[in-house]
Design a protein that fits this description.
The protein has 462 residues and is α+β, with helices and mostly antiparallel strands. Helix content is 32%, strand content 21%. Helix 1 links the parallel strand 1 and strand 2.
């Protein structure tokens, strides 16, 4: 099958008026564009980068949802209340509760909506902080983010929805009645002004902005980031300039497993641990419940003061998480036919590592992790050679804070009033995740609130 290539529109195609303008081409923006188009709106998507997809392209584990047909097909009996409670606990009870309730209530529908559009997520894995397999992914076990972006772009191409790259939105413009009804664009052909009845900010977070990280979390200023370079918080400034309120800006997530040894940072997906991998220190010993929340695991690694830790897994895990093929291809994976050979390569005590894996395998067999009380990601022992290791460090991954929005994606000002004509969804918005995002919830957020933005814009325009 030929590889799909999406060709963005050229600057010559930019019109002066649209029903809906969407800022950003990640999962949120593309979902919103497709949903709004299907509801009859004339839509344009503007992306500042040359490459489409934003941070969504880097997501690898899955898309969380509860009470889905996919879960039932795999014998996973789940309920929305558990999904809600575990996400709330994972966020330190600081989540916007109406927003979280909307998120949970619409998660299964989002899986169905994707399926309707030929984007099938029919395999399951589990992420930290979750008690059930809720992370939906392709049957091929390919990384979910690029799969989602490619699937959405295929539909957008079929529907002939306008998508422009290398077009940076530099200003939102209010009319005399206080409605946001236009944008200013910087394009390769110069500056342009575009009018719209609704404008959606789907521009992502600020995990790659050293300036904003230092402003809101100076303790993290020296951390590397897993974000694509364009995640610099542009949408936050656009929103602030029209009096939108920002919230929880100091809630910045550090992902526990990133490969940061070179110039480029590679996120090692949480699904590796979800499929059974463990973490060991330089002594070759476990030191944490690997599927606790990201905040807990990251802090445990940092507190080792040992230049990170090692993610340990076997061929069985590798076969269940296909992104490992990419990690190996680019040289991030060490391997050994025996545990002793692997231990020598990574410089840990071979007897300790062998003992650690043996103890872990007994825990899997008995379904009882007496050391760290892990209860998930224990479907299979680490006993299928070869054995593998990836050196990991925590890295800045996600910014939970952002624009204050209602669950329907309308934007609020500092007085709690709706800013007419302006919407925000995805990582640029704040509140959903509290002080710690659960793995698998960001892709779910893009689809759930991207759809809602498309629906809400259509409802208010019509």
């Amino acid at each position: 099958m030929a590889k799909f290539t999406f060709t963005p529109n050229t600057c010559d195609d930019i019109e002066e008026n649209y029903d809906a303008v969407i800022v950003g081409s990640g999962g949120t923006g593309l979902t919103a564009a497709l949903q709004a188009h299907e509801l009859g709106l004339k839509v344009a998507v503007f992306e500042k980068n040359k490459m489409l997809g934003g941070n969504t392209n880097r997501a690898s584990s899955g898309m969380n949802a509860s009470e889905t047909f996919v879960q039932l097909d795999e014998g996973v009996i789940d309920n929305k209340q558990d999904f809600y409670n575990e996400t709330l606990k994972g966020g330190g009870l600081l989540n916007d509760r109406p927003m979280l309730q909307f998120f949970v209530d619409h998660s299964a529908l989002a899986i169905d909506w994707l399926s309707k559009h030929g984007i099938e997520l029919t395999d399951l894995t589990i992420t930290g902080g979750m008690s059930k397999k809720r992370a939906h992914r392709p049957a091929s076990m390919a990384p979910v983010g690029n799969f989602l972006v490619t699937g959405l772009l295929k539909k957008i191409s079929e529907e002939k929805i306008s998508v422009f790259n290398e077009c940076k939105v530099t200003k939102l413009i209010k009319n005399a009645n206080g409605k946001v009804d236009a944008i200013e664009l910087q394009t390769p052909d110069g500056q342009k002004r575009v009018h719209a009845k609704a404008i959606l900010l789907a521009s992502g977070g600020f995990g790659a902005s050293k300036q904003l990280i230092e402003k809101y979390r100076p303790d993290l200023k020296d951390y590397k980031t897993s974000n694509q370079p364009g995640a610099t918080g542009d949408g936050l400034k656009l929103a602030e300039d029209v009096d939108a309120q920002l919230m929880q800006m100091d809630f910045i997530q550090v992902h526990p497993t990133a490969q940061t040894d070179g110039d480029h940072v590679f996120l090692i997906g949480e699904g590796v641990r979800g499929e059974g991998a463990i973490l060991v220190n330089k002594e070759g010993k476990r030191f944490v419940n690997e599927l606790s929340t990201r905040k807990v695991v990251s802090n445990a690694i940092t507190n080792l003061h040992e230049d990170g830790a090692y993610l340990i897994f076997d061929q069985g895990v590798r076969e269940r998480f296909k992104a490992i093929e990419f990690y190996d291809h680019i040289g991030l994976v060490e391997s050994g036919q025996t545990i002793s050979e692997l231990a020598e390569k990574i410089g840990v005590n071979d007897q300790n590592l062998a003992s650690t894996i043996s103890t872990w395998n007994n825990s899997v067999t008995n379904k009882d992790d007496k050391e760290f009380h892990r209860t998930t990601g224990m479907q299979r022992a680490l006993s299928d050679a070869p054995y593998y290791a990836i050196h990991i460090h925590p890295a800045i991954h996600y910014t939970m804070g952002g624009i204050h929005v209602l669950p329907d994606t309308r934007v609020l000002d500092g007085n709690g009033n709706v800013i007419d004509g302006l919407y925000a969804a995805g990582e640029v918005s704040g509140g959903l995740h509290g002080n710690n995002r659960i793995g698998g919830n960001s892709i779910a957020e893009t689809v759930i609130f991207g759809r809602q933005a498309g629906i809400e814009m259509a409802k208010n325009i019509k």
